[in-house]
Amino acid sequence: MAGEQAPPTRIALVVNSASGSYSQEAVERLVAVLEGGQVDVAKTYQLPDDDVPGGKDLDDEGLDCLAVFAGDGTINLAIQALSGWDGALLPLPGGTMNLLCARLHGEDAGAEEIAARFAAGDFRRSCEPVVRNGTRISLVAIACGPGTHWYHVREAMRDVPEDGSLGDLANETRDAVGLSVNGPMVTCADPKLGREEGYPVIELEPHEDGLRIVAYTAQDFAGYAKQGLAILMRRFREGPHEVLGHARRVRIASLEEGGMDMSFDGEPASGDAAELFTLERCPVQLVATGT
């Protein structure tokens, strides 16, 4: 497990009612675990009604730790808002995919279990490697290419109405397969790696030794369907893929002019036809409770 140390006695908490697994009952249980361990939740920021706090906001409250119980997108937003802050951020899984929390706390650790570890002092502070693209960062993975439309399928899955109608989900799935087959492929342009005809998705993962460059390699409809399921479930190695290599600077380019579909930690985004990515350190320390 992580190291034994005294946790802060007072922290702030960010929750997002729009996150994938939010409920008021879950927030109350989380706070009860923290306060039962003598960690006072002195200030709560409720998104989207409140803004994500900056370092000065927390300093003014006399707080040096911010817990964020939300999805990867909200956690990423909080990290960028706290860039350069001397305190630490505790990510707690409260979204759909919870990629960063799995990396820091373990695949199966829930928010209450993590909070209990933290309150018991079983944690460490970590300055994690990240991918930077201009003003944007990713803590788990950046993906480029038309296959990133599968993340829209994920959102449609989350928003299936109570009557069970699958119209939007079916449309997004059809579009994702179509774009994966016929959309503008992307290449690893610098360093020049992989096949010249490109790939539907190239993913960059930050590691200590560089950005791990991984390409999805599906060739037909069945392969794209399997690939999409792998993206949705974050079981990447179950989809057809190849590791192209590692580098500290990577330029990904579309084979066609115009923009390029992207995702940052599973959140859809867009970019230019060619984008530069670099390996850097997270701009704020993170609290990790995993081994």
TrEMBL record:
Residues 6-136 form the DAGKc domain. Gene3D superfamilies: Probable inorganic polyphosphate/atp-NAD kinase, domain 1. One of its GO terms (molecular function) is kinase activity. Keywords: Kinase, Transferase. InterPro entries: ATP-NAD_kinase_N, Diacylglycerol_kinase_cat_dom, NAD/diacylglycerol_kinase_sf. The keyword Transferase applies. SUPFAM superfamilies: NAD kinase/diacylglycerol kinase-like. The keyword Nucleotidyltransferase does not apply. This is Putative lipid kinase.
